[in-house]
Amino acid sequence: NAGVTQTPKFQVLKTGQSMTLQCAQDMNHEYMSWYRQDPGMGLRLIHYSVGAGITDQGEVPNGYNVSRSTTEDFPLRLLSAAPSQTSVYFCASSSRPAGVDYGYTFGSGTRLTVV
Amino acid sequence: AQSVSQHNHHVILSEAASLELGCNYSYGGTVNLFWYVQYPGQHLQLLLKYFSGDPLVKGIKGFEAEFIKSKFSFNLRKPSVQWSDTAEYFCAAGSGNTGKLIFGQGTTLQVKP
C-alpha cells in the first residue's frame, strides 16, 4: 500500500549510542518532515525537507541530523542519544509545501526509549 | 517566531454535547491552517484545512472550523459529539512558501457515552 513507512517501530537505546530512524515514502512527495510527539507538547518539528538535497531545521533540531539523497527516503540520525530524546517520532510527507493540498501523510511512528 | 497555541488541554464531554476547541496562531505572511485528529493507537489524519476564501470550512465527520483573521484564531467545532470522537486534536499552521508545518500542543477529547 502506498504511504509512509517508518522503521523500526520500537527501539531502546543506551545513553550515548547512535542510531538512524528510517522513513520512506512511495508517493513521489517532494516535502518530508520529522516530528517528535511528547505528552503535553504536541508535535514538534525537528527537521524538514523541500526536495532531494534540501533540508532545513525545525523547532527542535539539536541532537539530530538529516539528509535527503533521494525523493523517497528521509532518515533521521540521533548522534549521541540522551534520555531527553525518549519520544515517539513521526515522519510525514506531502506533495505540496506544508501539506497545503491534501495535508500530510503520516507514518505509523517509532517509539524510542533512551535509558 | 511561528507558533500555534491550543487553549484546552483536556476536554470531557457527554455524547450529544457541542464541542469547541480553541486555536490561536502566530505566523508571519500568508498562513494555511489545519486541524488533525489522532485516534487512540493511530497516526494523525487530516480533519479539515483552510487556505483562503470562505472562513467557515467544513471537514470530515461533521467537524467545522472558523478562521477569524482579526483574532488569529481557527477554532474547531462540532454541534453534537459522539463517543467515537474520543481522540487527540491538533491545530497546525503552515506556509506554502517555507514548507514548514507547526503544530499546537494538542487537546485530548474524551466523550462519555
What does the model show?
The complex is a heterodimer of chains A (115) and B (113). With 115 residues, chain A is mainly β. Chain A has no helices and eleven strands. In chain A, the strands form two sheets. In chain A, strands 2, 4, 5, 6, 9, 10 and 11 form a seven-stranded mixed β-sheet that branches. In chain A, strand 4 (31-38) and strand 5 form a beta hairpin. Chain A is globular, with a radius of gyration of 13 Å. The termini of chain A are far apart. Chain B contains no helices and twelve strands. In chain B, strands 2, 5, 6, 10, 11 and 12 form a six-stranded mixed β-sheet that branches. In chain B, a hairpin with a 4-residue loop joins strand 8 and strand 9 (73-78). At the A-B interface, strand 4 and strand 5 of A face strand 5, strand 6 and strand 11 of B.
Short description:
The complex is a heterodimer of chains A (115) and B (113). Chain A has no helices and 11 strands.
Q: How would you classify the helix and strand content of chain B by structural class? A: mainly beta
* Multimeric status of the protein: heterodimer
Largest sheet data of chain B: 6 strands, mixed
Strand content of chain B: over 45%
Q: What is the number of E strands of chain B?
A: 12
* Portion in helices of chain B: under 10%
Q: Give the largest interface pair and sizes.
A: A-B, 28 and 25 residues
Average residue-wise pLDDT of chain A: 94
Tally of alpha and pi helices of chain B: 0
Order of SSEs of chain B: EEEEEEEEEEEE
How many helix segments of chain A?
A: 0
